[in-house]
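User: Some background: our group keeps a shared notebook of sequences we're curious about, and every so often someone picks one and asks for a predicted structure to add to the entry. Today it's my turn. The entry only has the sequence so far, pasted here. Could you supply the structure so I can complete it?
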Amino acid sequence: MRILIVDDSSMMRAMIKRVVKLADVPVDDVLEAGNGAEALAILEARDVQLLLTDINMPVMTGVELLRQLAANQRWRGLTRVVISTDGSASRRDEVAAFDVRRYLEKPFSPEVMRDVLEEVARTAPDLTRPA
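Assistant: Of course. Here's the predicted structure to add to the notebook entry:
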């Protein structure tokens, strides 16, 4: 499985990446982007199975990224998980329209991320194929 972490904080990306590597699930590669625009460029060039995205970012927000992904059939099978400090009901409702699998609030425990990764690997067996 290839994962793309999208967050404007390099420290948060490093922390998420570390948690992903510690989880006992098959991960071939972990890519990083600092905003939605960078994420789109990576998604255009690489085959990614799991997107972990923040919401509040400069240049292109996570909501804008999710909206663009939902509008393009090419990314229909991409599993989307939001990781954000904004856990409001209105924000959750807003992104629900964009096929978001899970919504995690920061800070989250490593166990929560492991559970999400295991769920994705379990419910989408084709994600375990080499990327």
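Suggested note for the entry: The CA atoms of residues 98 and 119 lie 19 Å apart. DSSP finds five helices and five strands in the chain.
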